[in-house]
């Protein structure tokens, strides 16, 4: 899992915050560490942030910065200890909660149920302090949808999907121009529609599934409007078709996506949505590098 997937935007903001309230020695080391961090010299940044922590051990922000430097060296255990120390000093710190969520996810296989369950409360803590945090809204929606997929009870499953959709709707209100919001919304609406159809449920649930199909198509149409010609649009159609169990339709859309100039075949190779196609010669031909 990428070392910057969740934290990159928050971290840039954190590094840009004026060092108000810092002791002179601590401020000097934080500033030096920030310069090194931006240069991707994470070992050097760690050295300066450790000096900042030594000069003011009870500064939660210094522990967060040190944790970020450790995280970007893939030293997840050490980073986790620093994020936890930051939370002990400042229990509502959104940066520490966000970082700890990323560590928990990074220490486990992608989609690991226990890691998802452990990370979600930390992302919710971020949203409690920063309700409009776009990255956290989108990422937490994906995790809630992962959790929904494994819930055995139909009502609980649908409630979780409703939560995921609501987070993405909030994200869309925060920044309607963000392409990832429309893509993820289309995929999660398709998953909710599939769950509604699979449930032994009242007829109105089937009507809701049809409505979700329409909403997913509308999200993809909006994505097309905002990114005309991008491979992401037919790729999204491929994913939603797979969710609906339409493998032939998915392969056709994937072929269209991978024929576009900005296509990234390696994404399809690792995308779990296409797990059922891994052994299909048609899929193998599509993703084969020239």
- What is the CATH superfamily of the domain at 1-130? Tetratricopeptide repeat domain
Biggest pleated-sheet summary: none
Average pLDDT level: 90
**Stretches with pLDDT under 50, minimum 5 residues:** 1-18
H/E element string? HHHHHHHHHHHHHHH
CATH architecture of the domain at 1-130: Alpha Horseshoe
Give the N-to-C terminal Cα separation: 27 Å
Q: How would you sum up the global shape?
A: globular
- Helical fraction equals over 70%
Radius of gyration: 21 Å
The helix tally amounts to 15
Q: Tell me how many strands there are.
A: 0
Beta-strand residue percentage:
under 5%
Q: In CATH, what is the class of the domain at 1-130?
A: Mainly Alpha
- What structural class do you assign from the helix and strand content? mainly alpha
CATH topology of the domain at 1-130: Serine Threonine Protein Phosphatase 5, Tetratricopeptide repeat
Concise description?
By secondary structure, this protein is mainly α. The protein contains 15 helices and no strands.
Give your account of this protein's structure.
With 290 residues, the protein is mainly alpha-helical. The chain has helices at residues 8-16, 24-38, 42-55, 60-71, 76-89, 94-106, 113-129, 134-149, 154-174, 179-198, 203-226, 232-243, 247-258, 265-270, 281-287. Helix 4 (60-71) runs parallel beside helix 6 (94-106), helix 7 packs antiparallel against helix 8 and helix 11 packs antiparallel against helix 12. The model is unreliable at 1-18 (pLDDT under 50).
């Amino acid at each position: 899992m990428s070392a910057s997937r969740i934290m990159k935007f928050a971290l840039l903001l954190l590094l840009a915050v004026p060092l108000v309230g810092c002791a002179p020695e601590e401020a000097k080391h934080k500033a030096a560490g920030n310069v090194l961090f931006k240069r991707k010299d994470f070992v050097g940044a760690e050295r300066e942030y450790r000096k900042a922590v030594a000069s003011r051990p009870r500064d939660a922000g210094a522990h967060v910065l040190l944790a970020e430097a450790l995280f970007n060296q893939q030293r997840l255990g050490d980073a986790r200890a620093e994020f936890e120390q930051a939370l002990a000093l400042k229990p509502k710190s959104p940066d520490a909660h966000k970082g700890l969520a990323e560590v928990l996810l990074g220490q486990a296989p992608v989609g690991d149920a226990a890691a998802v369950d452990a990370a979600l409360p930390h992302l919710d803590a971020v949203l409690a302090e920063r309700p409009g945090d776009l990255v956290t809204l989108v990422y937490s929606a994906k995790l809630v949808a992962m959790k929904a997929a494994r819930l055995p009870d139909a009502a609980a499953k649908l409630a979780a999907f409703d939560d995921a959709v609501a987070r993405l709707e909030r994200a869309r209100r925060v920044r309607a121009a963000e392409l990832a919001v429309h893509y993820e919304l289309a995929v999660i609406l398709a998953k909710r529609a599939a769950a509604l159809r699979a449930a032994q449920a009242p007829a109105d649930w089937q009507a809701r599934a049809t409505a979700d199909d329409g909403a997913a198509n509308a999200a993809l149409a909006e994505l097309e409007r905002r990114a005309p010609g991008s491979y992401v649009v037919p790729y999204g159609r491929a994913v939603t078709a797979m969710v609906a169990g339409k493998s032939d339709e998915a392969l056709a859309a994937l072929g269209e996506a991978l024929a576009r100039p900005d296509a990234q075949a390696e994404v399809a190779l690792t995308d779990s949505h296409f797990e059922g196609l891994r052994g299909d010669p048609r899929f193998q031909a599509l993703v084969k590098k020239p």
